[in-house]
């Protein structure tokens, strides 16, 4: 996620113990790690969208260089002869070719490389490929990777009610990590809408991994280098770490309909009993809360939806109400 690369880098280090050659890019984090990282991050990472195995990263001058760089790679360890593949391409910068041209060039190079080493002509399937390659061109840099995740992990699968201004689950998780929320103290989201922040906070506190809600198989299981048994064992271990202790998490909103939706989302995520939902006003917290929060993480309404003057009044009212109720709390907005 652009702007939150360092949060994911920290999370990856926490999950894996350490990572090598860490480099933060724009919306991307590069690092080296043993193959287990592919399983662990796809199971546990809350701020990750997609994990790619990087096959190539280098500079180029024209499309021909992209073909040559791809053609030199060995795809036999990442695509089985009977599997189909697709290339998704993205391009940023000034070029005299399109991202479709990049995809076509890379696709042809993959077919040619595979044919040369195995005699098999790989099938292309753009709608439901077994293996998805991701080609990214930024200015004069070309990257090629394999998607080990499948659809983005921020689509957790527990959201049954969609608030009109719903926050991405991964952004909510990143905000909670920035706030230092680990389950100790009282977590408050005073403008919780559909409940994304308290739900992610409850999942973190109860050590319920995002993989608990994944629909379908992760893409890594299609890769010849992946060991399905190892993945399943690691998944079982992660799911077995869940704890059912009591935590102090409060989600508040002005509107009952949103709170009802938030409750449905929490129920769907299996954490309804971990969160207390309160209908109340964020500018008058003391009237609705018994205890002072230690961690306040919230995604208030923003300009597009509210007139500027109303927004100032809300922000000022909320901050002064919070300052008198919980002067020492950690706040992430
Ligand atoms: C951007 S939305 C939050 C979305 C939420 N993070 C989610 O993922 O669904 C902001 C929320 O603040 C609520 N809100 C606005 N003014 C409020 C106030 N004074 N007190 C409590 N909630 C308020 C709105 O009803 C809205 O649900």
Chain-wise SSE layout:
Elements: H1 5-16, E1 20-24, E2 29-32, H2 36-44, E3 52-59, H3 63-71, E4 84-92, H4 99-118, E5 123-124, E6 131-138, E7 141-147, H5 169-179, E8 186-189, H6 196-205, H7 228-240, E9 248-253, H8 256-268, E10 275-279, E11 295-297, H9 308-325, E12 330-332
Helix pairs in contact: 2-7, 3-4, 5-6
The structure holds S-adenosylmethionine.
Features:
single chain, 333 residues, alpha/beta, VC0802-like, Rossmann fold, 2 domains, 5-stranded mixed sheet, binds S-adenosylmethionine
In words, what does this structure look like?
- This protein is α/β, with parallel strands linked by helices.
- The protein has two domains: 5-147, VC0802-like; 169-209 and 244-332, Rossmann fold (3-Layer(aba) Sandwich).
- The chain is built from nine helices and twelve strands.
- It has a five-stranded mixed sheet. Strands 10-9-8-11-12 form a five-stranded parallel sheet, covered by helices on one side. It has a two-stranded antiparallel ribbon with strand order 1-2.
- Helix 4 (99-118) links the parallel strand 4 and strand 5 (123-124).
- The longest helix has 20 residues, at 99-118.
- The chain is elongated, with a radius of gyration of 23 Å.
- The protein starts with a helix and ends with a strand.
- The mean pLDDT is 96.
- It binds S-adenosylmethionine.
